[in-house]
Each structure stands twice: as C-alpha cells, then as structure tokens.
Amino acid sequence: MRAAAPEGFLVLPWPGGAGVSGPEEEAREDLLMRSGALLGVTLICVLLLRRWIAGGVCRCSVRLDGKTVLITGANTGIGKETGRDLARRGARVVMACRDLTRAEQAAEEIRRSTGNGNVVIRHLDLASVYSVRQFAKDFLDSEDRLDILINNAGVMMCPRWLTEDGFETQLAVNHLGHFLLTNLLLPMLKSSAPSRVVTVSSMAHRGGRIDFDDLFFSRRPYNSLESYRQSKLANVLFSRELAQRLRDSGVSSFCLHPGVIRTELVRHVKAWFPLMGALLSLPSLLFMKTPSQGSQTTVFCAVTPGLEGKSGRYFSDCAEQEAAPEGRDDAVARKLWEESSRLVGLKDTC
Length: 350
Fold this sequence. Notes:
- Helix content is 47%, strand content 12%.
- It has twelve helices and ten strands.
- It has helices at 23-54, 77-88, 100-114, 129-142, 169-191, 224-245, 267-272, 274-281, 284-287, 291-294, 296-303, 330-344, and strands at residues 3-4, 10-11, 68-72, 92-97, 119-123, 148-151, 195-200, 251-257, 314-316, 319-321.
- It is globular, with a radius of gyration of 27 Å.
- Residues 1-5 have low confidence and may be disordered.
C-alpha cells in the first residue's frame, strides 16, 4: 500500500528496510560485519608489527652539555638522526661528510629543530687515506676534546670500485677509513676520557669472512654481498680488538646493528636487483625502520651510563646481543688489525 506524504509527495518503503528481510540481505550484512572485523584485526596487526619492527628505544635522558661528538656520514639517514638527538642533548656535534652542500643543509635543519647552534660540518672522504689524515690533523688542531666518536658512514653492495689508494670501496669506506680515523684521534679520545667509540656494523656480519689472501677481490669474482659482509665483519672485529687494546684507558668501544632501515644505503641493491627494488618499495614502508628508529641503538651506546664494563660488545635494539662466532674470533681480529695498519700506513697504534 502506498503511503501518502504531506504536500503530495509519495513515500515508498526502502528496499531491505524495516519489515523487509531475507536470506540475501542477511548474507550481505554478515559479509559487511566480517569484512569490518577483518579490517580491524588487520590494522591492529600492522600497528603491532610496526611497533615490533621499530625495536628498542633509548630512554636515557643524559645531557651532553660541554661534550664534543664526531659523527661520520651525518648528512643523511641514521647519521643525521643521531646528530639531531645528540645536538638536542646539548653536545657540540661535528658532522664529517663527503658532500659539504648536503651536509650544510642537514646541519642547518638540525640547528633549527634542536635550537643548538653548535653543529658544524667538516669535509671527510673515507675512501681516501689522504683525506682521513688531513681531517684528523685539522680536527686535532682545532678541537680541544672528543668525547664520542661515531663511525657511522658506509656504503652497501656497490659495484667493484677501487679507491685512489687501490682499495675495494666497501672495505675501504666501511672499515679501513674508520680504522685509520679512530687511531689518529685516539690521543684526544684518551685525553677526554671517559670517552667512547661507537661503530655501526650490521647483522650482515653473520656469514662474513675476512679473506686475507684477497681482501679486494683482485683474484676472485667480485660479489657485492660477500664484500659487504666482509666489511661489516671487519667492523665487529675492529671494535672488539680496539676494546682489548684500550683496556684501562678510559676509552670504551661498542659495535651495533641498527636494524633494517629505509635509507639511501640500499640504492645500490636496487641497481643490482631492479625487480627486488620495485617489490620492496611499498613493503619497506611497513617492514623497515625509519632513520629515527634506526638511530636508537647508536644513541644508546653513545650516552647510556654504565656501559664501560661492556666495552667490545655487540648491541642491537638497545640491548647487548651476541655477535656471530666469526665476530668473536680474537686471532682473526688481531690479524685484521695488523693488516689494516699495514694497508693504511699506520706504524704507531694503541
């Protein structure tokens, strides 16, 4: 029966409205309810997954007023976020970077966001022994202290490039450059004690091998991943041996895995494997840490009180973790130290 409405309008019953029911309508409502529940559960799972991926957080509130921090590769990624955190704590932050234009842009951003104007940039090319030596000389001549050295800069899975010194680039930048830099700055680190050296490695050190007979892939086919693993294992072994040599000096050494992070470091991976790069672009938003999250373990090792007794140890997600067996080989660590000293022309070491 048609229902009459005021002013001549005709009102018809709404399909599926009150008094209208049937198997199809009930099935549709059931489907909507199930879909809504599934969407809700999915969102909750994604949020929990993101929280888990974010990992540990450095909750230490220590101030660094009057302290000087040196960070390599601080113009982008976790190096930049580490600099921001330590500047916020009041430290004088020295950003050692190869690209001074980008470094100044990053430094200005950090100054503005933290209100700390004591953030400076200096040129450093870790692929050049000459540049590392010149940087260290200028730093020792112009700075009066060094409380925290963060060996952060790195390259990942690049093509087989040789540096001006004839070194394979990944081992040169990730290990040899930092090895030389740390040794040259040790006098100031010791005079500023208690001080710390924090070296950013990677879980990729697991399965790595130091091939002393062919460190630079001169005789064997070059494998970018194998080279990267070798360089990251070298980071772990260097940090461990440094701690041994600096025992009772007041200088502590720590090594860490920052996590899998969305940074420019993976640009060469995409070049080697374009399809993988395309497939990872969207998932990376969900399954990789942000640079800020990735910097947390570096900051933890740099500022947390009471870590001196754990010098030489390996950290991940703001907690001590056990390095792979190959990263705990003291004989290989000593041999790597000696070979690294020879390669960079370092005669007097700690």
